[in-house]
Each structure stands twice: as structure tokens, then as C-alpha cells.
């Protein structure tokens, strides 16, 4: 392509707290409209904001995790404009002195398209803390405003225009989400509006310095949609530029069904937000010592965790990646690993069996009845050959259903592995006797028929025969 | 001293502040507002270089609350002052467009 | 006129109640009678729910009978400026845009007076959203000055001042953003106190200019203001700008002990004020008289020059209106209050609701505030005003290193006639001695200091103290009060 793509992202992330940013209303999703409101978040006359300390701390931690420097002196400002979703017709936000400045996020690996991404640092201009707006419900002839969401603490994370492709945008968002989830800053559920993204995108002829006309994209409700919208917009703008059309600054929406962007509004006269220091709130001042204390609280980032898992538990890179994709899964694994000598085996069981059970059930890992300790106990039983791997699958399903300990399940169901050669020998003899033609095939060189015999032995022993012993005996007897 | 006369564009400012100014009062408003602006322009006489601005009359910092939730107000109470409701649950406003608005 | 109750002070009423010489119900009903008689001329009240008040009085009386009174002051009525949220009552700020509006919670100050058993007694008229110095900007009614019905009571807490002065109520709660307690107190011959910024919670008081607003009592005498200050002040978790004020003694007991002289007290004055344009002769004379009075009482008088007086008004109007432009943005007809009927879209709803329901002075101030914050003007106006504010605060800090309290006239003139001041800028000059006090966040009190010879109008003396220096200004005011020529300021009604 003969154009350079310049993309900057503005991401809003709701901070996970008990209460809202400036009042004590619960920070919760999915309640009846306007039931989580009070004079403060509905902008009643005389009501005043009181900041939520936890939200400020999380904003700072988020900044540190994104490599930002933390301001020693920050303040809140009022940003004025009239809209029904803003109860006071100004938003308490941060203007010239936000909590976090100048960070970056490293993107690497594969993009959404499957293409490999060059390792690259995407700059973060600033992260500031503000209050979320209310929700407008749209009806045929009017709109209805629900203030439950108004006043939820919200981070605004503004990137530098360092992003050059849809894949990079996708990778940036994925990494950002991972950081926010790992730092326990936000659940980042886009369907619940906990993470939202606006894209600024422009094209310029390759190598030229000046930026092209900036188009703002809104209303994308998944990272995939962001990827598609950016791809679409790059094509659209490139085509227009090819044809010599002059682009105008505008805001475009994304129609996911039709897979295209559409004009929402052409650039109105520049906003005049009339920012000024919020007189109802005092400044926030951190000493170097305070900031060091915050640094000590930063949770391990996914990348560091992956590397540690590989060296500490001897798992593969693939295992480490799957296990760290969600912090809750990584925590589960680490907890289990404390109780087994075979963390690699635990990793295998988690990845191939447990995660499958979880996704089939529609639960999340925090909701399941299998505790990491119990899973580790089962791994130990397999290790000690008390049960076979095959029995293990039965035991795990049972654990998933009942939450019982594996030892209890094995005992109740009589699933202890048979390692007694003389009793296994009976199954082996019977299997060979019942299947003379297969025995003939084996002897004539079709060695993979052995698997068939193992299956027969397991069937007769109802899965309890130790497969290694069965194989040994079968080989001996089949010659 | 910077004594450039500044003019106030009442139409533009009234648009920002969402105030309809009666047509018949417009010229009077423009004149009064200009008088007020001229008056407060008095401050340009003072040299304020290197002076730190004061935003608050009390010097405090880090005043916050702990993250505890409580909800003392029922929806009924919160909505009883609303001029128009939709479906008894949301505040009715003229149609706004998806994607417009805030944050 | 029943002399038993009208013009009694809070502490006198408390004594009567304690000695079982009267009841809350009797007190309230005597004030109802007084109101019936004088209110048609004064128009100090926007609303008075006599039924509800009588019920509260009966409750108080039965508490007292059972020995369960909430305080010495249980059952005493206090009128409330129409800017405080009192749960279940209308709170219109004398504006059409808040009609109808019923408060759904109590302001912290209201909670505190209720905890002592005071009865919120009606809603006092004011300048719309506290913007004005004459009470003429009310969209409900024009309040008259009890000393001369053709004159204004001052503002914005003009209804409160007139009600106390006319004997309709023993005391009232007002608010002071640039003089709105002290100036009407001066015009009506009563005591008006503006506490230091942060001393009293602003939670539940409809905000005009958040960095300047303070609640303050208007009362018959200094002791009553101290009683009310004790009642309403204190750190509030709902207002992060409130300060912890550690003191051993209540203001009431400090005032009760202040009955001697001012020996060892250093009082700053500014003789330059006597040369100021627009200062009326009677004010000058009274200022000089008051300084002499203080000297005779033993105070050491120190002349201090205060260079920023004329700039203070400009800085004040920039900062106050900038904050107001944001504070008043919420009055838009969406969530509460008035909404016009004939709108075709959202923008029209905003423009027409605000355009038609807000008064001209409120509009002017919102426009000025919007202008000084708007793109391209912020540095020249708002930021510059904040820097001038620093100069003013610093000069007061220096002043109070030289003296304990500082004296000035409260107003440049006595009460002017209704309709007399028509230009906005001229009206702003009425607060020339009071604006800078709010900018600096310090405390001040108006104490009646004389009557004009020609018109028999009250004149006030303003006593200023450093931040949290209320004990000093209360002491000076109390000693002055005990020794001034005119003992009681009661208008002929
Ligand atoms: Mg934002
Ligand atoms: Zn709330």
C-alpha cells in the first residue's frame, strides 16, 4: 500500500470497586434502571462529590502497570457540556494534571489476522480518572435515561498515534485488557460496557510527515469489531485518496452486521469544554514513598508470569500461554502446583480436560466445584498409579459434578487401578482367546493391533487394569 | 500592560451555556455584558507573573472516602422530582442518538 | 405586639423554655402572629408551613415535658434561606427553574440544627440562586427593609435579614458567597457572621460558587451567632472541603466570657478607606467612630494599607461566575425542576427551559462565567483572577501577623432604595468590602454600629479575622456590642 496508517486509541475502562467514584452507590451492572442512584450521581442541587480512595489507587496501579510515571500532584477538573447522560452537565475528569503520564505497552506475537506482529512499543500519552456517564435507552419517539452507570469510576487511556495496522490495534487492546484484568483494575467485559474503545485513524502517503485527515470511529463492541472497522476504514480511506477525494474530519460509527462504517456526524465546531479545577475536591498529592509503595503492590504481569511458569514448573511455552491467559486460571494452576510433584501433568489435565469441562458448563473457573487441591490430589493418584489416566477422566467428571475429593470417588466407585500381574493376566488370556484373528494379525507383523487388545483388557477390567502391565503381558503372550 | 479590548460574543456564549436570550433583550444584554467584561478587565493592570494561582480557599490534600457502598435512596424518591418519566423507570428526554454523548 | 417573645434572643428564649415560662408552641404561635402583622409589608418569607411547624413545636414540648429535650434550644424556630435542602420542603432558590422541586434530603447544616431541636421555620426570600445584593432578583417577591419599606434589605440573604430585623423570627440561616450574610445584616441592623471557608459543611446547600460559599447565621446579637456557629460547624464527610477545627471552648462560652474590654487586642484599620469613591459620609463617620470606640475599649489600633480592594471585585466576579456557570448547568429541566412544554428537540428543551426560567441577573452571571472559561479567554481572565486571589490571600496573611482582627465598613452605603441601582456593575460595588473576605477564605462578622442621622438607617461595622479566627472576631464584636451607644436595633414597624 502506498499509504502509512496512523492510529491512536482512546480506551475507557470501568474500574472494579464496591461503590461509585464520588458517591456510595453500589458499582453494579444489570440492576433495574435508576435503582443505584443518589443525589450525588443524579446531580441534585446541593449534593457534593467525595472521591473513592480505592478507585484512585487502582488508577495509579493501572498507570504503573502500563509503565507510566505517576504525578506527585494531581487534581480533578470539571469538563462542561450539556447532555442528559451527564447529571451535572459537567463531568468530573482530569485535565492538565492526570494521575498517570507517558507509559507504553509492548505488542508482539500474532495479530487477529494470524500474521506475525513485529515487536513494538505503543506509547501511552496519559491515563486519567473520571466518572462514567448515564445510559440512554433509545425508544421510538424519545429516549430514557438510567443513571445507574453514572458515576462509576472510569479510566481513560489515551495512546500515542503509534499504531499502524488493525493487527497492532488488536494486539494493543488485548494486552491492555490483560493488564487491567491482571491488575484487578477491571473485568473489562465489553458486553457490559466495562471496556470501550474509540479509534482515531488517518492515512498519509508513505514517508510523509504531516498527518492526514483524522476520522474518529465509535460504537465497536468487541476487539474483533475494532479490527474489522479499522481494516474497513483503511480500505475506504485509501480508495478515496486514490481517487483524489479530500477526506473531511468526521465521526463514523461501525455497523457490525453490514461490516461497514457509516457517517455519524461531520466535525462540528470544536468543543469548548471550559475545563477548570473542580472546586469541590482537593488535590491529590503522592510522595515518592507513596509511589514506591504502590509499585510494591503491582501484581505480576502475564509475560513475567509465563516466563516464570516455564522455568519454575517445566511447562511448555504453549502451556504457559494457555494457563496465563486468564489470571484466575493462572492462580488456580499455582495453587494446585503447590500440592503435586508433577506440575506438568497438572498443566496437561487443566488444559485438555478441566478447561474443556469449564467451557462446556458455561461456568468460570472461580465457580467450579473442583478445587485446585482436589485436582492435585488426583494428579498424585495418577502419578502413584493408584488410578489410570483413563479412570482419571471419569474421576474428574465426577469431581466436577459433586465436588467430592478424588479419594472418596475412587473408593466409592471402586476405581482403584489393578496392578496385580496375575489378575491382569486373566484378562489378557481371555482377550487373546476371544480374538484369534486379531492375534494372528499381530503375529504377522501388524503391531498396532496391540492397541485393540489393550482396549479389550481395559474393557474387561472396567478400566482398572494398569495399562503398562497389560501391554507388557500382551507383548509376552502374543510373542 | 496588555490593554487590548476584549469583546464578548453573547450569542456564542449563550449557545455554550444553553441560554435562550430574548430577541428584544439581545442588544441590552450585549451592552451590559460588555460593560461587565470591561470592568473585570481591570485585572490586566496587575503584574501576576510567577504567582501561583489559588483554586481553593482551604489548603488540604488527599481527602477521600473508603470504598464502601450503601444505597439510602429508593428509585421512587430519586424520580419523584422528574418532570417526565418513561415507563416509570427512566427519565424521559427528547430522542438522543446512539453513540452521541459522553465519556 | 406581644413583647414577651418578639425580639427575644435565642438564649433568652432558651431560658424561658428552661424555666417553663413558655412553650415551643407558644413561641411559634407568637411569631405566627407577628408575621401575620408585619409580613404583608416585609415579604421576607416565600413559604411558611404553619401546620407542620406547630406539629414540630408540639413534639418539642412533649420531649421537654418528658425531660428528653435535645438541647437547651429544643423547640426554638430558625428561619431558613430558600437555598438549603430541608427534606420534604420546597427549595426554590427563589427561582422559577426550581419550581416545583421538593428536597429529598437534609443539608448537613439542617441535620445539625434539627439534632439540637431547632425548628426550621419557613423559607426566606433571597436573590435568585444567591446572585444579588438587594433581594430584588428574586423571581417571587421583593422584600422590604424593615427600617424603611421603600428600601432594600440587602442580599442575597435579604429575606433572612429582614425577618430577623422585623422580629418575625429570632434568627435565620443564610449563605455568604461575597457578602450575602454580612451586607443584608448591615442594611437591617442585625448581626451576620460569615465563617471561615471549610468551617461549615456546604453539603445540601445549593451551590453558587463552591470555593467561596459558606453558610452563616443572622441573629439579633453576637452570642446567638456563636450559638448557631457551634451548632452548624464541624468536619463533614460529605463535604471534602470542610476542616477540622480543634478548640477547647465552644464559641458560645468564648462570647459569654468576653464581657470586659479589649486590652492587648491589636486591631487593624485602613484609613485609606475614608478617601474611597462611592463611600457615603455616614459610613465614613461611623467607621471613624467605631475605630475610636475600639481604641477606648483598650485595643491598639494599627493602620494597614490594603492595596487590592478595587481588584478584588473583578477577581471575585470572574471566579464566582466561572464556578456558578458550571454549578448552575444542572438546572436544565431534565431530572428535576421545571421543564418547558414546547420543545422540538433536546437543544431547544435546554435553551428554552433555561432561557425562560432563569432571571436576567443569573443569566448575566452564567454568561460572564462561561465567557471567562471559554477557549482563548481562560488565561486572561480566570487564571489571572486566581493569581490575584493569591495576592489577596497573601496580603491578609500578612495583615493578621500585625493584628488580631481587621475593621472595615461592611457596606459603602446604607440600604439603598428599591429600583435605585439599575446597572449591574454599580450593584456589584455594594460588596466592595465583603467580596475579598470570601476570596481569602477568612472569617468576618457584621455588627450594627450606628444609625444614619438623616434617614435613621442602620450602619454596620465589619470585623475580619484570620482563617479559623472566629473566636477573635466574636470577642471583638461582643465587647463592641456591649459598649456601643445604641443598645438595641429595633425598627419602627
Ligand atoms: Mg473521557
Ligand atoms: Zn450515587
Can you tell me about this structure?
The complex is a heterotrimer of chains A (479), B (103) and C (493). Chain A is of the alpha+beta class. Chain A has helices at residues 53-65, 166-182, 223-242, 288-296, 302-313, 317-324, 327-337, 343-361, 372-383, 389-402, 406-413, 421-434, 436-443, 449-460, 467-478; strands at residues 3-14, 69-70, 73-74, 77-80, 90-93, 100-110, 116-131, 135-138, 143-146, 153-159, 195-205, 215-220, 250-255, 260-266, 276-277, 284-285. In chain A, strand 13 and strand 14 (260-266) form a beta hairpin. In chain A, helix 2 runs antiparallel to helix 3 (223-242), helix 9 runs antiparallel to helix 10 (389-402) and helix 12 packs across helix 15 (467-478). Chain B is mostly helical and 103 residues long. Chain B has a domain at 10-43. Chain B has a two-stranded antiparallel ribbon with strand order 1-2. The radius of gyration of chain B is 23 Å and the shape is flat. Chain C has a domain at 10-264: Amidase signature (AS) domain (Amidase signature (AS) enzymes). In chain C, helix 5 (158-165) runs parallel beside helix 6 (182-188). The mean pLDDT of chain C is 95. Chains in contact: A-B, A-C, B-C. Chains B and C meet through helix 1 and helix 2 of B and helix 10, helix 11, helix 12, helix 13 and helix 14 of C.
Alpha carbon gap, first and last residue of chain B? 40 Å
Strand order of the largest sheet of chain B: 1-2
User: What is the averaged pLDDT score of chain B?
Assistant: 88
Shape of chain B: flat
Amino acid at each position: 500500500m502506498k499509504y502509512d496508517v496512523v492510529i491512536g486509541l482512546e480506551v475507557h475502562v470501568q474500574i472494579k470497586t464496591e461503590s461509585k467514584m464520588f458517591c456510595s452507590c453500589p458499582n453494579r451492572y444489570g440492576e433495574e434502571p435508576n435503582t443505584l442512584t443518589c443525589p450525588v450521581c443524579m446531580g441534585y442541587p446541593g449534593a457534593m462529590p467525595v472521591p473513592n480512595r480505592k478507585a484512585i489507587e487502582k488508577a495509579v496501579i493501572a498507570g504503573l502497570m502500563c509503565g507510566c510515571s505517576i504525578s506527585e500532584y494531581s487534581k480533578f477538573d470539571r469538563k462542561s457540556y450539556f447532555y442528559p447522560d451527564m447529571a451535572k452537565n459537567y463531568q468530573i475528569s482530569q485535565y492538565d494534571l492526570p494521575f498517570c503520564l507517558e507509559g507504553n505497552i509492548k505488542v508482539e506475537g500474532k495479530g487477529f489476522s494470524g500474521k506475525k506482529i513485529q515487536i513494538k512499543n505503543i506509547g501511552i500519552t496519559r491515563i486519567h480518572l473520571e466518572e462514567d456517564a448515564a445510559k440512554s435507552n433509545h425508544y421510538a419517539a424519545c429516549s430514557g435515561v438510567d443513571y445507574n452507570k453514572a458515576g462509576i469510576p472510569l479510566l481513560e487511556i489515551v495512546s500515542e498515534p503509534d499504531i499502524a495496522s488493525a493487527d497492532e490495534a488488536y494486539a494493543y487492546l488485548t494486552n491492555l485488557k490483560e493488564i487491567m484484568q491482571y491488575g484487578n483494575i477491571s473485568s473489562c467485559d465489553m458486553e457490559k460496557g466495562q471496556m470501550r474503545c474509540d479509534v482515531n485513524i488517518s492515512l498519509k502517503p508513505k514517508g510523509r510527515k504531516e498527518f492526514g485527515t483524522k476520522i474518529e470511529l465509535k460504537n465497536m463492541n468487541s476487539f474483533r469489531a475494532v479490527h474489522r472497522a479499522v481494516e474497513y476504514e483503511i480500505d475506504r480511506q485509501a480508495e478515496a485518496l486514490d481517487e483524489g477525494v479530500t477526506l473531511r474530519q468526521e465521526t463514523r460509527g461501525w455497523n457490525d452486521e453490514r461490516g461497514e462504517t457509516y457517517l455519524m456526524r461531520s466535525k462540528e465546531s470544536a468543543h469548548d469544554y471550559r475545563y477548570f479545577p473542580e472546586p469541590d475536591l482537593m488535590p491529590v498529592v503522592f510522595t515518592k514513598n507513596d509511589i514506591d509503595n504502590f509499585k510494591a503492590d503491582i501484581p505480576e504481569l502475564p509475560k513475567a508470569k509465563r516466563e516464570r511458569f516455564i522455568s519454575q514448573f517445566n511447562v511448555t511455552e504453549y502451556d504457559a500461554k494457555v494457563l496465563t491467559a486468564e489470571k484466575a486460571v493462572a492462580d488456580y494452576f499455582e495453587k494446585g502446583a503447590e500440592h503435586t510433584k508433577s506440575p506438568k501433568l497438572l498443566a496437561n489435565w487443566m488444559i485438555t480436560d478441566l478447561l474443556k469441562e469449564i467451557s462446556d458448563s458455561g461456568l468460570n473457573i472461580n465457580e467450579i466445584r473442583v478445587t485446585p487441591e482436589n485436582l492435585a490430589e488426583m494428579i498424585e493418584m495418577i502419578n502413584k498409579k493408584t488410578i489410570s489416566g483413563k479412570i482419571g477422566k471419569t474421576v474428574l467428571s465426577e469431581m466436577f459434578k459433586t465436588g467430592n475429593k478424588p479419594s472418596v470417588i475412587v473408593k466409592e466407585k471402586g476405581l482403584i487401578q489393578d496392578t496385580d500381574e496375575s489378575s491382569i493376566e486373566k484378562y489378557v488370556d481371555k482377550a487373546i482367546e476371544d480374538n484369534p484373528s486379531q492375534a494372528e494379525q499381530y503375529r504377522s507383523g501388524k503391531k498396532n493391533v496391540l492397541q485393540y487388545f489393550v482396549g479389550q483388557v481395559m474393557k474387561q477390567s472396567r478400566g482398572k487394569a494398569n495399562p503398562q502391565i497389560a501391554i507388557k503381558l500382551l507383548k509376552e503372550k502374543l510373542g | 500592560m496588555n490593554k487590548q479590548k476584549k469583546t464578548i460574543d453573547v450569542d456564542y456564549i449563550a449557545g455554550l451555556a444553553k441560554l435562550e436570550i430574548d430577541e428584544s433583550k439581545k442588544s441590552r444584554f450585549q451592552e451590559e455584558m460588555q460593560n461587565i467584561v470591561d470592568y473585570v478587565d481591570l485585572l490586566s493592570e496587575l503584574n501576576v507573573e510567577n504567582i501561583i494561582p489559588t483554586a481553593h480557599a482551604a489548603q488540604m490534600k488527599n481527602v477521600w472516602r473508603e470504598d464502601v457502598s450503601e444505597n439510602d435512596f429508593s428509585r421512587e424518591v430519586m424520580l419523584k422530582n422528574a418532570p417526565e418519566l418513561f415507563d416509570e423507570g427512566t427519565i424521559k428526554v427528547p430522542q438522543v442518538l446512539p453513540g452521541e454523548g459522553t465519556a | 405586639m406581644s413583647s414577651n417573645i418578639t425580639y427575644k434572643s435565642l438564649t433568652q428564649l432558651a431560658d424561658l423554655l428552661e424555666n417553663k415560662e413558655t412553650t415551643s408552641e407558644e413561641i411559634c404561635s407568637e411569631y405566627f402572629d407577628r408575621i401575620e402583622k408585619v409580613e404583608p409589608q416585609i415579604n421576607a418569607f416565600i413559604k411558611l408551613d404553619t401546620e407542620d411547624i406547630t406539629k414540630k413545636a408540639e413534639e418539642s414540648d412533649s420531649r421537654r415535658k418528658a425531660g428528653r429535650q435535645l438541647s437547651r434550644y429544643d423547640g426554638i424556630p430558625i428561619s431558613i434561606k430558600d437555598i438549603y435542602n430541608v427534606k420534604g420542603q420546597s427549595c426554590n432558590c427563589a427561582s422559577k427553574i426550581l419550581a416545583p422541586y421538593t428536597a429529598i434530603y437534609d443539608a448537613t447544616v439542617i441535620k445539625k440544627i434539627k439534632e439540637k431541636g431547632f425548628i426550621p421555620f419557613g423559607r426566606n426570600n433571597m436573590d435568585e440562586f444567591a446572585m444579588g445584593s438587594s433581594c430584588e432578583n428574586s423571581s417571587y417577591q421583593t422584600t422590604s427593609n424593615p427600617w424603611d419599606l421603600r428600601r432594600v434589605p440587602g442580599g442575597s440573604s435579604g429575606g433572612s435579614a429582614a425577618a430577623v430585623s422585623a422580629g418575625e423570627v429570632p434568627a435565620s440561616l443564610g449563605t455568604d458567597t461575597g457578602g450575602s450574610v454580612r451586607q443584608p445584616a448591615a442594611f437591617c441592623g442585625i448581626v451576620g457572621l460569615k465563617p471561615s471557608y471549610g468551617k461549615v459543611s456546604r453539603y445540601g446547600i445549593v451551590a453558587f460558587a463552591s470555593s467561596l460559599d459558606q453558610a452563616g447565621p443572622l441573629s439579633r446579637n453576637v452570642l446567638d451567632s456563636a450559638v448557631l456557629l457551634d451548632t452548624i460547624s464541624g468536619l463533614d464527610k460529605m463535604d471534602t472541603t470542610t476542616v477540622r477545627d480543634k478548640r477547647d471552648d465552644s464559641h458560645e462560652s468564648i462570647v459569654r466570657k468576653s464581657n470586659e474590654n479589649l486590652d492587648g487586642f491589636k486591631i487593624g484599620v485602613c484609613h485609606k478607606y475614608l478617601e474611597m469613591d462611592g463611600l457615603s459620609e455616614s459610613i465614613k463617620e461611623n467607621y471613624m467612630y467605631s475605630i475610636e470606640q475600639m481604641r477606648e475599649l483598650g485595643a491598639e489600633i494599627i493602620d494597614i494599607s490594603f492595596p487590592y480592594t478595587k481588584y478584588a471585585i473583578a477577581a471575585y466576579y470572574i471566579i464566582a461566575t466561572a464556578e456558578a456557570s458550571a454549578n448552575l448547568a444542572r438546572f436544565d429541566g431534565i431530572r428535576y425542576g421545571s421543564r418547558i412544554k414546547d420543545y422540538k428537540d433536546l437543544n431547544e428543551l435546554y435553551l428554552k427551559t433555561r432561557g425562560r426560567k432563569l432571571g436576567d441577573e443569573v443569566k448575566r452571571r452564567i454568561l460572564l462565567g462561561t465567557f471567562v472559561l471559554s477557549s482563548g479567554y481562560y488565561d486572561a481572565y480566570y487564571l489571572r483572577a486566581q493569581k490575584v486571589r493569591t495576592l489577596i490571600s497573601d496580603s491578609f496573611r500578612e495583615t493578621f501577623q500585625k493584628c488580631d482582627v481587621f475593621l472595615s465598613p461592611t457596606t459603602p452605603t446604607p440600604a439603598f432604595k428599591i429600583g435605585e441601582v439599575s446597572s449591574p456593575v454599580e450593584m456589584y460595588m455594594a460588596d466592595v468590602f465583603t467580596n475579598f473576605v470570601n476570596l481569602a477564605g477568612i472569617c468576618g462578622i457584621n455588627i450594627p454600629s450606628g444609625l444614619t442621622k438623616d434617614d435613621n438607617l442602620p450602619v454596620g461595622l465589619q470585623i475580619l479575622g484570620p482563617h479559623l479566627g472566629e473566636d477573635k472576631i466574636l470577642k471583638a464584636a461582643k465587647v463592641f456590642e456591649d459598649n456601643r451607644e445604641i443598645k438595641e436595633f429595633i425598627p419602627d414597624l
